[in-house]
Amino acid sequence: MTEWQTYAAIFAVGAASYAMRSVGFLVATSLPKTGLLPRILSLAPGNLFIAYAATGIVHGGWPTLAGCVGAIVTMTLTKREWAALGGGFAAAALASALLAARA
């Protein structure tokens, strides 16, 4: 790929991103503020987060699941992000070590 093609590709991706954001903003301003549709759309970020997390857990296996559960439990008990990170990492490391010992 030549230099001008690289710049053209970067420009095209930027233009497409800007166009999608602009159209999304225009569509969002025309949506009703009350009713069923706004309630459904307010659930979308949580659903997307769960979909991404579930995909990562499936691909990561048992250590990833243990890390997620450890982070959730630690966050529930302490209400501290840094503690949840530590709890999640510790649970993932323990699960990974246990699986390695069994193999």
Q: Care to count the β-strands?
A: 0
CA radius of gyration: 21 Å
How much beta, percentage-wise?
under 5%
Helix content: over 70%
Largest sheet: none
Compressed to H and E, one letter per element, the order equals HHHH
Mean pLDDT across the residues is 92
The rounded distance between the terminal residues' Cα atoms is 46 Å
Inertia-based shape = flat
Name the quaternary structure: single chain
Low-confidence stretches: none
Number of helices: 4
What is the SS-derived class? Answer: mainly alpha
Q: What's the topology here?
A:
Blueprint: H1 3-30, H2 36-60, H3 62-78, H4 81-102
Short description, anyone?
This protein is mainly alpha-helical and 103 residues long.
Question: Your description of this structure?
Answer:
The chain has helices spanning 3-30, 36-60, 62-78, 81-102. By secondary structure, the chain is mostly helical. It has a domain at 1-30. It is flat.
